[in-house]
Amino acid sequence: MKKFTNLLFIISFSLLSVAQSNRDKIKTLKIAYITEKLDLSEKEAQQFWPIYNNFEEENSNLRRQAYDARKKADLNTITEEQAVNILKEIRLNENKKQALENDFVDRLTKVISAKKIILLHKIEDDFKRKMFEEYKKRGRH
């Protein structure tokens, strides 16, 4: 498995040299980072990634919808009724996100251990922190 993750890192970094959007670069790095840190077996990885990718896509859509709902609100001209409707839309979106997270965890428990699911959350946080630190470093130069 270590050879696989090393190979994945080499491929990931070589892909970075090819012209890609920043989003694709980050996604490639995230996949490699999660794969290495979670230490998924080949069988686990085959089942894990479709579930994870589906969750990420749906979660991204929900975030975009929440952003669009907030963006609609012009606080200088919005009526109370419009504000109430936007607030309802935001709360509905938050409920959808929670249901999505619950479904995600339920589906993952059939593929990987509960310990790995908890570890996944930590790994994702660590990755975000590393990306932010890298962004700060590049901003200084």
Q: Give the mean pLDDT.
A: 86
Helicity level, as a percent range? over 70%
First-last Cα distance: 37 Å
Strand content: under 5%
Number of strands: 0
Structure in words:
There is one protein chain. The protein is mostly helical and 141 residues long. It has one domain (42-140). 85% of the residues lie in helices and 0% in strands. It has helices at 2-17, 22-38, 42-72, 80-108, 114-140. Helix 2 packs across helix 5 (114-140). The longest helix is centred in the middle third of the chain and has 31 residues, at 42-72.
Task: Name the features.
0% strand; 141 residues; 5 helices; mainly alpha
In short:
By secondary structure, the protein is mostly helical. 85% of the residues lie in helices and 0% in strands.
Question: What is the element layout, followed by pairings?
Answer:
Layout: H1 2-17, H2 22-38, H3 42-72, H4 80-108, H5 114-140
